[in-house]
Amino acid sequence: MTPTLPTSCGSLPPVGAVPPQGGLSAERSSAPLLDVKDLRVSFAGKEVVRGIDFSIAPGEKLALVGESGSGKTVTALSLLRLVQDAAISGQAVFEAPGGRGDLLSMPERALLGIRGRDIAMIFQEPMTALNPLFTVGDQISEVLQLKEGVTQAASAQAAIKLLADTGITEPARRANAFPHQLSGGQRQRAMIAMALACRPRLLLADEPTTALDVTLRGQILDLLGDLQRRNGMAVLLITHDLNLVRRFADRVAVMENGHIVEQGNVADVFARPQHAYTRKLIDSKPVRDVDEAHPQARQLPPVMRASQLRVAYPVAVPGLRGWFKSGEFVAVKDASFAIAAGRTLGIVGESGSGKSTLALASLGLLKFSGQLQAAGQSWSRQAAGNKAIRKVVQVVFQDPFSSLSPRMTVEAIVEEGLLVHEPLLSPSERRARVEQSLADVGMGEAQFPGLLRRYPHEFSGGQRQRLAVARVLIVNPSLLVLDEPTSALDVTIQKQVLGLLQRLQRERGLSYLLITHDIDVIRAMAHEVMVMKDGEIVESGPVQSVLDAPQHAYTKILVAQG
């Protein structure tokens, strides 16, 4: 049997054999389920969690909120001593069934009995947390066999029951599936089933909905709330999503740079935040700051126009028929739209709805049927014939770290478009254009000495996204395709990048084709919106009309969950 998670290995020691100091004492008290005092975590002498205190009562839901790098995930992992090469100090007294003990000082053998049984964890990315070589049913069964001594046959049936409890359809069939054969939501449900297999007293949930679509987020949140009430367990929710906190948690603790700067009841903290950082997080919701009037749109033809756009992929036909013909999967079905000058068309939908396929077709990167024109020209089957359109239509991808070459300097990254589209410029002219493009996105030598010689890894996520915007602006495009441009960013950085895009649109008259699943981003950025489901546009129109008075049932679900 191979281990699948750090929480599912080892054997359960007899509680009575654990020494009182550093182990579990037999004393009972009215103490909190978990009481953390002066927790400090450091790597190579650098402290990343700096003397924090918090407690969780039995059955309570506490949210630990902060941006990337605040120390919240390291805090959760350190409670079970799952952080490698870290120096951990302080106290984390836990009320286990056999008595109270300090998680940070008890012997490893005693902690093995608590991990996965009394304290379980849901990790942020189930695809990396689940073992790709074993079925999800086997991985859930393993926890029951190791922690509770259940037989293989009984644990297999229990795994199916646990999957059913999480709302997975056809649980018996899904139990025999490997992680890659499940959708993101199904994988997350399987992770939850594994974590709850031994009915833990405390669940550590590390960003359990970050990788999921908006409707799946709501479903997973409702599922966790229902299971928490039924099992009476406490939950420590690690998140940066304030909407999630409002909807789920009883209390909230706000972390900044390794410190807990504020904590209290959710309603009190959100209504009357005391710390400046808490106010900054609460005020980070995207703000609408776009030109509603569009005189350019009335005078100029659309920057992009599509009519009956269709994208299909060939698929194999099972059986004897597959010898003679192939089938097709239609990813985009007869989409029609127009993007006016200086306007933003938002496309919203879940994963698999076809919105990214539509974006790729709009960039001329996928074969399509129907009519599609950019700046009055149609995409050609010959790459050389598309050069003029590619200067007009540029793209900003979701993850700036993967879209920027790690081997190229900032100057080489930003000037690359000029080498293709304006090759006659001299080196000095190119450098001047690079510096101006960087200045347009708020980056210059004053703030970043040696900026042009730096590499992408030397910048934060928000700064890398600014570099990605500077790279496309340098060729003076008319239309930017924005593929989830802020979903990989923290909320405060998201607000800054959206503000930058709004300013550039006003100053340059840019048009945007905005792909996102975030309703708040659509409200802040879009003039018109199209809602996609299963490759079809189910509703479209002015953003206020569609989002404030949705007509289609699917749109109503997206707006309610957003």
Secondary-structure map with pairings?
Blueprint: E1 24-25, E2 34-43, E3 46-56, E4 61-65, H1 72-79, E5 87-96, E6 99-102, H2 108-114, E7 119-122, H3 126-129, H4 136-148, H5 152-165, H6 171-175, H7 184-195, E8 202-206, H8 214-231, E9 234-239, H9 242-248, E10 251-256, E11 259-265, H10 266-271, H11 276-282, H12 295-299, E12 304-315, E13 327-339, E14 344-348, H13 355-362, E15 369-374, E16 377-378, H14 387-392, E17 393-396, H15 400-403, H16 410-421, H17 427-440, H18 461-473, E18 479-483, H19 491-508, E19 511-516, H20 519-525, E20 528-533, E21 536-542, H21 543-548, H22 553-561
Parallel strand pairs: 4-9, 4-10, 7-8, 8-9, 14-19, 14-20, 17-18, 18-19
Antiparallel strand pairs: 1-6, 2-3, 2-5, 5-6, 10-11, 12-13, 12-15, 15-16, 20-21
Helix pairs in contact: 4-5, 4-7, 5-7, 7-8, 16-17, 16-18, 17-18, 18-19
Structural overview:
The chain is of the alpha/beta class and 562 residues long. The protein has a domain at 33-282: P-loop containing nucleotide triphosphate hydrolases (Rossmann fold, 3-Layer(aba) Sandwich). It is 36% helix and 24% strand. A six-stranded mixed beta sheet has the order 7-8-9-4-10-11, sandwiched between helices. A hairpin with a 2-residue loop joins β5 (87-96) and β6 (99-102). The model is unreliable at 1-29 (pLDDT under 50).
